[in-house]
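Researcher: We're reviewing a set of sequences before deciding which ones to prioritize for further study. For each one, I'd like a predicted 3D structure that I can look through quickly. This is Phospholipase. If possible, include the structure in token form so it fits the rest of the review sheet.
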Amino acid sequence: MRTDRRVVAFAFTILCLFLQACSTLPPSTAKEETHHLPPANDTAAARYAHAEVDKHQNQSGFRLLTLSTNALLSRVALADQAAHSIDLQYYIFANDMTGHLMLQHLLAAADRGVRVRMLIDDNNFDDKDHLFEALDSHPNIEIRLFNPFQTRNPTLLSRATQFMLEWRRLNRRMHNKSFIVDNNVAVIGGRNIGDPYFDAGSDTHFRDLDVVAIGPVVQQASDAFDAYWNCDAAYPLDQLKKTDDSGQRLAAARQVLKKEVRAFNQSDYAQAVINELPDGPTADARGAWFWGDAELVADQPEKIEASRDVPALRIGPKLKSMLDGAQHEILATTPYFVPGDAGTKHLVSLAQHGLSIKILTNSLASTDETAAHAGYVHYRKALAEGGVQLYELKPSWGQSQPSTTLGKSSGISLHAKTIVVDDRQVFIGSLNMDQRSKLLNTEMGVIVDSPGLAQAVSDFFHTATLPSNAYQVMVDPASHHLVWLTTADGKPVIYQSEPDATTKRRTEVTLLRLFPLDSLL
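Model: Here's the predicted structure for Phospholipase, in token form for your review sheet.
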């Protein structure tokens, strides 16, 4: 009898989860449509930005954020300088140490009267302690979730059930990343908000790139933000939450954030951040800018609703045009490289017509996604044989890593997404060179015509691809097999198989290669 009851209880639980997952989302049309505010001109920071832009009519200025710690403090400084508005859009805004630091500074800005709009993709949204709900109750803060799950804080089983039943919708995510202050300055690039992106995590440390931007491109970024903020897939958090005591929780959230930030300020990490700040230009110090004609490119939010590929909705054609205009050299950095058959043939064709094409991606030992690496393996040999020069980043700058669960890496992992063409044109953004970025997720970035910025990004590429930091993947002319060239202790080393990768990772890739997953990677 006890067994029968357990079976009935289990079946009832599954039925409840099924019905819950089948429930429909409330209409997002109930939300208020809002738009970006005019560029501020009544603060010292605004006057400085306008004065710089006025010297370079119709051009935008950029500073490259290479150091993870500088990227964090630049965002903090910009939030502290805000006088009227902060608009931010992220795939991940983690509920961790650096996420709490940013929330505390956003809350302080809202207390000063700054309007804060936060748009976060719901795929990795974590609000188990209701901090985001509490801040959303502030009269100057509004949080919206992009393409949300139907239940808040679902169990793993409930989440999996939802995903299976609404696979087509929930498999499409907003991968965009921007941070816009007073419609005068923006941070655009590859970093999310979370410890791994600012060297504060205990596991993976991502190597990434952002730019701080001023000039006409900021207005374009604000227009793109508004398109997503007001689209049907953006749901107000207060329309989705199940509790109605967020106002009471705001006071408690203030104390939690205050305690967390105090602990952060006293940490060794915070001291290291201060010590690592460069003397050169950062977002919170005046200095030189890289100037050039620039265009903010962003997929249309309707991309996630399309039943087929609609090139007009995505930025891929503009990037292809940029690549096709190359005369001498293409340098590309991407953590996940799954070019597909057409992309592989196109890159090989360009290489065989005399272009130098160099691509930096993750090695099996450094990647945080073994599934993406399994997709990359399908095309690696054809690319190398066709003249495309491939480099794979070492973990921990060449140090071997221990085995970790679920294929996640420890140490250094590449996360930057950049393209440099002919030492002049530059793309920096959120788009990986894979089929998921091309067809499923929404992406954004900036295309800039600036030799100075191109040189700075090229320097990052050349440093990362030094033999001490990366493996060069080539085809051995004798065996016709792939080999990995690098150095160890200053001496040349050749590997005959994936270097520094654990048996577990090798097995994962072998198994994953058996499945036709390219379109999902």
